[in-house]
Specification:
Length: 376
């Protein structure tokens, strides 16, 4: 979980009032304004409310992922359908990855947050912590997108070609696929170690990401293009596969004869609904960072970002905050979109609808014809 600091400028030592004369006040104000214009205002402290928000967000994310892992582990141990077991294995790996991706980067960001962040002059630099934090962001950002894409492709094959799916998809091959996903994301995250891109501290100095706002080189642009391209391609493939799966299930339900057995299809519907929820959550949470990061790198490399630098810094901060919510919302997608939960919601809605209709039943309002018959 990444949370960015909110600073309180009143705690800056540059604002000491050691003199009561007006000349001293004017000089102090001019000095602060001059340093601020040069972007060198330092030693700013984060607010206490910001720290509390960070801790509460991390707590919410950890609890959400632990609850989802418990439910998934219980469902996986009781599952007898092989296609459902494969889906649960993917979902468990996704939630576990979100959990680790929430704890490790979040702990590093919280440490930077409590220490007040790095000096603004060091925003374009990188040390060991920044390298690890930036690599963690890339790795734990790509993994859920890759897994969502793989889950959508697996379900699309299971819905459209069930016989081929039963012969190709096994637990062993699923584990190999998950290992390949983690390895691919790790290879991308480690590219800066081979001078193929670079990580740098980002404003306000409490998180690290690919260098996209200043001193951007060709390798940085290529790195961002690779990261954003892989992320958006994963979302696009997931969208296509989920659309095909959904349309196939709708057509199958329309063609189903009354009274036929459809429990297998209900399992497929449940899994596709959950995949659509995961895909929508990923699109909302990750698209801004993928797009703004790419735009910032290109404009920085071409030298046209200077006039809008503050706007792009704000957009990047908002985008990374939104991306971190993906790790909190993913487990709730599975928790709330399970068939048992949806059935209870349906029954409650049906019961409420029945109560409303019951108030307006014809028996409650005898017609004039019935009244006349009773009189006769």
């Amino acid at each position: 979980m990444l949370a960015l600091s909110h600073y309180n400028s009143s705690s800056s030592p540059l604002l000491h009032r050691s003199s009561n004369d007006s000349g001293g006040k004017v000089e102090a104000r001019v000095a602060v304004e001059g340093v601020s214009q040069q972007g060198n205002l330092t030693l700013l402290q984060p607010t206490t409310s910001g720290v509390i928000v960070v801790i509460l967000s991390m707590t919410l994310g950890i609890i959400s992922n632990i609850v989802a892992l418990f439910i998934l582990a219980n469902a996986y141990s009781q599952q007898r359908r092989r296609n459902k077991a494969t889906f649960l294995l993917f979902a468990s790996s996704l939630v576990f990855t979100d959990f680790i991706g929430h704890v490790i980067p979040g702990a590093l960001v919280l440490r930077l947050y409590l220490s007040g962040g790095v000096h603004p002059d060091d925003f374009n630099s990188s040390d060991g912590m920044c390298q690890f934090l930036g690599g963690s962001m890339v790795f734990f950002g790509l993994c859920p997108l890759f897994m969502g894409c793989a889950m959508a492709a697996e379900r699309c094959l299971g819905v459209t070609k069930p016989l081929l799916h039963s012969s190709l998809v096994t637990k062993t091959r699923t584990k190999v696929c998950l290992s390949a996903i983690w390895l691919a994301a790790l290879c991308v995250a480690l590219l800066p170690c081979f001078q193929l891109g670079s990580y740098a501290y980002q404003d306000p100095g409490t998180w690290c990401f690919i260098k996209v706002l200043s001193d951007t080189q060709e390798v940085d642009v290529a790195f961002v293009v690779l990261f954003s391209g892989l992320g958006m391609a994963s979302l696009a493939v997931a969208l296509v596969c989920n659309t095909i799966s959904g349309l196939t299930l709708v057509l199958a339900r329309l063609r189903r004869r009354p009274g036929s057995h459809h429990s297998a299809k209900s399992h497929d519907i449940e899994m596709v609904v959950q995949l659509v929820g995961i895909m929508v959550t990923s699109c909302i949470c990750w698209s801004p960072l993928l797009i703004f990061g790419l735009m910032s790198a290109i404009r920085s490399y071409t030298g046209s970002i200077a006039e809008d630098l503050s706007s792009y810094k704000t957009l990047m901060v908002m985008a990374v905050r939104l991306a971190t919510w993906n790790q909190i919302l993913d487990p709730w997608v599975y928790i709330l979109l399970r068939r048992t939960v949806l059935r209870k919601i349906y029954l409650i809605a049906k019961c409420q609808r029945g109560n409303i209709i019951g108030r307006w039943e014809p028996t409650s309002f005898p017609s004039s014809e019935k009244h006349q018959v009773n009189q006769v």
